[in-house]
Amino acid sequence: MEKRLRSSLNSSVEDFLSAAVKLSLKSCKPSLKTLVHSISPSSPASATLPPSLRRSISDSISSFQNLSQPPSSSPPPHSPDAAKSPPSKRPRRSSRKSSSTTSQVNEFGSSQNEPNIDHEKQRALESVQVLAYLTFLCISHPKKPFPAAELLPAIQLLHDNLILFETDSNLLSEISNLCEECWKEEFPGRELLISQSLPFLLSRSLRLKKKVDIHRIYLLREAFALFDFEDESIEDLKLLLIRCFIAPLFLKTEDGKKFLAFVLGLSKQVLKEALAMMKSQISFGRKSMLEAYGEILFRAWKGVGGELKDEIESGFLQTLIEGAIHASSGPLAASIRRVVGGFVTQRISEGVEKLLFRLAEPVIFRSLQVANSNVRLNALHLLLDLFPLEDPDSNKEAKDSLLDRQCFLLERLLVDECPGLRVVAVEGCCRVLHLFWEIIPSSTITKILTKIFDDMTHDICSEVRVSTVNGIAYLLGNPQSHEILKVLLPRMGPLILDNVVSIRVAVLDLLLAINDSRKFQFNKVVGLDALLSTLANDQSQIAQKITRLLIPSYLPSKVNKEEACSRCITLIKRSPVAGARFCEFAVSEGASLKHAMELVQVLVNSVLSQDKAEKDQVEGMLVASAHLCRSVVSEQRCQTTLKDFLSSVNAKSLFAAASTPRAQSSVISIFSIVSPEDVTQLVEECMRLITCSSGVSQDKEMQTQVKSAHNLLMSCDAFDHMFGSLTNILEKTAYRCHVKFGIEMSVKMPNGKRRKGESTVKSSAKWKHMRGKKASSFEEDYSIAVAVAWQLKELLAVVDGQKAVLGSQDLEQAFLALKDISEATILQAACCDYMDAEPVLAYMALSLHKTLQSLITRGTGDSSVSTSEKSVLDETVDHILNCIERLLGESTDSRSDSVNRKADSNGKRQRERQADVSISNNDELASAKVTRMANKVKMQTALLKFITDCIAMDFLSQIHRRCLTFASIYLKDVVSTFGQQQPNENFSTSNLSKDIFTCLKSSFSYAAKLLNLILNAATSNEASQEAFELTNTMFDLIICVEAHFGSRAASSLVAAAAKPWLPDLALALGSGTLLRKREEEIATSSELLHMKLHFPSWLHMLAKVELHQMSKRSSEEPGEEGGNISEEPGELLPTFGRFMDMMVTLLRANRTVMDAVGMIFLTGAVVGLERRDFGLVLGMLHFVCVKLVEEDREWSQLDAMLTSLPEIFPIIERQVEEEQNEEEARKELEKAKALLEPVWLYHVYETGKFCNAEDSE
């Protein structure tokens, strides 16, 4: 190829160009470059090539333009006789003709030439591309043999037609490269080559977002100055330039920022538009963008002069300064300050300090003293950024006076009334002192620091105290402050006991910073006693920091092991609890593993060697040893070393030395963590712990002890023996329940032979504690069974324990024993104070896990059970619900028979006899009632939670209605029990009553969740009656709580339990109406019929609240009588009123649900008419017409409510005429009539839905 091209070049330039344009540029680029660069200045081609290039380029462009023009739309010429002859027959499409032939024939029978035209256009573009590249080679020739004047026409021709080639990106790149090279080479006439190329390059950089394009634009920046930006034709280029100010790549790259700074100096108009663009981005721009704007502005300000500089200073920066002070929000002010920061960071540059002073001084000092706290805060932030604000041209006295003024204002702002401003002021003062200590007078420093340490450390606002500590920690970075801080830092010591966690964390961070400096001692700032007290009692993050602080003193790695262990033991003896917590975090905070292992051995030996050591010190040493073992056991080498050491330790002696529950738990933990196979001596002690753990459910220390015993027994494969012993206890208690209460036994009594599981424990470790015991009372046995039930529940909560329990051979016996104990617990909860919910909880938890295990065994993930098969969980819940129904004296199961009724009567008589014997006087009776009620409520709350959780897991799908009924009768029993008592202060403030209220709040939440789950289930249609009944009971509960616990408790119940479930309560109320579409179905719905028979009490109370509000409003209106409506303080129920207002707001958002729920209130009015309770009628109608529907006389989309109007309005009219003797009743009826009359008349005369009684006659 190169030879042919060389031959043609030697022949003539025209032949060379003709041969070149026939080749692909990609394939011939190297050859073309070699040939063109081989042309010398003396060669004839140096004079003939440029004009030939221009002609070839002109011809190629003309050819491309001709091909690009659309063809003429006029029909082709034809003979004069053609009009007289019929049109030629169109060729018939046939499969025998080739598709290519058919496609080339158009409607007139002519061939289509579009593919050929496209090919020719592409060839023309390739030719221009080759010619452009040849022109580029001529310009970049190292010897410059071609006259510039001869090349310029060809280049200009390509440049002027740049827009013509917009479809070919490669050709555009070649031409732009050519124009760019001309500019770099300072080609004569280069100013003629920028009008098209620069906009192209700028648009390309914005579109492709490549750094190389931005670099090219920056190198061509001087060319932009040749444009007249005041001319209207430059608008497109101006828009491209303005777009660059929001292009991220321009703001990130150094070349981009330099270019934008140059653009700001092109013209005043460009400057204004660019500044406006930047200003619009400040409110939502990122930090990096705003900082880039500041840098660009500074560079532009430094590079321009005259009116452009004045525009930046007075027109933009002055606006920013004022905006930073008067910004409407803190984030906006911070964003503005970031832009101004471009000048603040360059304040050492000439003229910047003077500029900042001139712009800020007139406004900043005045703004620091205005009444608006936001303005003061913004001004303070700006002052801290500009500090020290000074005029470089003023004398020393003026500078000192200005500095004193700024320090005075900072000191004054430390005591500002706005807490947020004090936070910024104290941190700002510490920052100013850190950076400018040398220029601030010592008296001013002393005054500011004294105020900070004396006043700010005791500020009422916790954020101010945190900022004070953080500010002092920052000030420590200046060594010049250390001398005065030595004196002042001890004043911050009390903050270690502050009640805010973040302050204590900040103080410890300060102490850690102090500890890194040799000039300070942390114990001079905070006393060791305060540190140890905090270490013993505070949260883990606090304890970890204190441990890190104390490690160099009490477990240093730079001393030998004996010295380190001695120091740590000294710490434990001084404060056992603190020492134990120190050991808990020592390894994680950097203590040596070798020292930690040595310390375990020293501590254990110390416990064994001390005969008369104090209990708390022994406990501290053992707890510390357990923590250390837990920390180092992950290292195999450490575990081996500790195992060898413990093998030589008499575990029984060590356990005997542990005289407290926590110490014994630690001994068990040590052996179970390190050496579980060497614990034969501890098995008997562990069994004693778990079988004699009465009261464990309320004792945190005992819980830890028992859990440790569980872990040890499971680790040494003694679980079967442990579980067998626990089962024996449950069986014994179940038998005694049978004897005492007549409970029918489910568990089969053992025949004395129980199959023993295999165990690694030696045969000598028999359960001696089970023999030789004296006879115990039922209460004692029951208390131990409660502890066993708690243990079973805890074992089921961990994976290993769960597997062991479910795999035990005694599982069924334990389950049946729990069943009997749970039955006795439920039935006797109303008459025995010592009954506890733990057996019931364990019974339910065990049934759930057995059911889940059964599903896993069957290999299915579906929790549903067929209708012919009842799971263990179904049977358990059915059994418990039967017990609850017997307890509450109300059976909801249609299958209950005479046997159950007989058992109920026998149990009732027995409970009455026990109650008579156990209660001796009125005070004991009142206390016992509260205790028993608390037991019942706790137990039923636990059951309601369990049922709700099971339904959430898709269990119990066959008894949804029964579950709703249980929740309803449970809450009804609570309301009834409270209703039998008079509200009194002693009851509402007792601890047991607080527990009852907590359970009631939880019960409300679980009941609401139960409604949600069942209403969303497929069986929701069948349970609408029960859901309606439960919702009514929940509303009654709110009123009951407000009456007996007060409005504050009721508000807590509504906010925490009712409000989140308000939509579900509304749907449950209206479920009956929503599920029935026809009017006759709605009128005869079971919910409304049931409501008429068992009218909800909350509707009565709602009517009374409405009547009271009406009376109050009428008494406040001048010239009107207040009426005769009675006002009792207990009937006002403000919390219940607010709850109903929330319900109204919710219902207004959905007219369909409003229609369904509105039927409830209108049915209440019907009941009032039937009972001649006209106050109820007025209250219900006032609530509906005034609050619910408001002033809508059409009652649009309330079809169900309109169907009930004929049952109400005509009767009210008739009753008004009949009640002439009862003045009060007649007034109530007239008011009720006035409420409904607009709606009635509208539908009588406007819609014709109703007719007047007179018309019907």
Automatic annotation (TrEMBL):
<feature type="region of interest" description="Disordered">
    <location>
        <begin position="35"/>
        <end position="118"/>
    </location>
</feature>
<dbReference type="InterPro" id="IPR016024">
    <property type="entry name" value="ARM-type_fold"/>
</dbReference>
<feature type="region of interest" description="Disordered">
    <location>
        <begin position="894"/>
        <end position="918"/>
    </location>
</feature>
<feature type="compositionally biased region" description="Polar residues">
    <location>
        <begin position="104"/>
        <end position="115"/>
    </location>
</feature>
<dbReference type="GO" id="GO:0000070">
    <property type="term" value="P:mitotic sister chromatid segregation"/>
</dbReference>
<dbReference type="InterPro" id="IPR024741">
    <property type="entry name" value="Condensin2_G2"/>
</dbReference>
<dbReference type="GO" id="GO:0000796">
    <property type="term" value="C:condensin complex"/>
</dbReference>
<dbReference type="Pfam" id="PF12422">
    <property type="entry name" value="Condensin2nSMC"/>
</dbReference>
<feature type="region of interest" description="Disordered">
    <location>
        <begin position="1110"/>
        <end position="1130"/>
    </location>
</feature>
<feature type="compositionally biased region" description="Basic and acidic residues">
    <location>
        <begin position="894"/>
        <end position="915"/>
    </location>
</feature>
<dbReference type="GO" id="GO:0005634">
    <property type="term" value="C:nucleus"/>
</dbReference>
<feature type="compositionally biased region" description="Low complexity">
    <location>
        <begin position="35"/>
        <end position="71"/>
    </location>
</feature>
<feature type="compositionally biased region" description="Basic residues">
    <location>
        <begin position="87"/>
        <end position="96"/>
    </location>
</feature>
<protein>
    <recommendedName>
        <fullName>Condensin-2 complex subunit G2</fullName>
    </recommendedName>
</protein>
<dbReference type="InterPro" id="IPR011989">
    <property type="entry name" value="ARM-like"/>
</dbReference>
